[in-house]
Amino acid sequence: MKLNLLDNDTLRWQAYGADTRFSYPIGYSGALLGCDGQGHIDLVYYWEPGKYCHFHKHLCEVRSTVLQGSLEVVTFENGEAVSTVTRQTGSYSQMPEGDVHMERGGPEGATVLFNLYAPHGQLTEMLDEAGNTLKTLTIESVLAQFSS
Fold first, then answer.
1. What angle do CA 105, 122, 124 make, to 5 degrees?
2. Tens-level pLDDT at each residue, the chain (148 residues)
3. What is the pTM of this model?
4. Strands 80-88 and 122-127: what pairing?
5. 49-62 exposure pattern, b = at least 16 Cβ within 10 A, e = fewer
6. Do 73 and 146 touch, CB atoms closer than 8 A?
7. Domains defined along the chain, listed by start
8. Which residue, 37, 89, 127, 138, has fewest beta-carbon neighbours within 10 Å?
9. Is 79 exposed, middle or buried (0-12, 13-18, 19+ CB in 10 A)?
10. In Å, how far are 13, 14, 108 from 10, measured between CA atoms?
């Protein structure tokens, strides 16, 4: 199957917008590209300019490539922001299991390809602003979300 990752009209997007549980502006969308049934899942996400995704912790290895725009990544340790990096178009990153961060789209927004490997099926934990787990995202829950 051929797919143009930069042609937003060919992808089936799931939008995540304003969420009153958080003090920061949320505005991003995701599209499922594929899952092999053996722990690999590929997704593409788009951030609106200046908007965040949910604060989260990775429960598996994640590799990502910024396809368009720029993405600001703020990494946390023990509840404190310890680094901020702005990833530009073309940048590649490999994040280990346990990485805690939030991401924000740059002035033009950001489109990012994510390749996750979760042999145990768990992908991320959505966190509240104090770092408490609100929800665990699994391969199964992502597949169900995109099949509805």
1. 25
2. 556 666 667 788 999 998 888 999 999 999 999 999 999 999 999 999 999 999 999 999 999 999 999 999 999 999 899 999 999 999 999 998 999 999 999 999 999 999 999 999 999 999 999 999 999 999 999 999 888 7
3. 0.92
4. unpaired
5. eebbbbbbbbbbbb
6. no
7. 11-147 (2.60.120.10)
8. 37
9. exposed
10. 9, 13, 21
Token match 């991401």: residue? 103
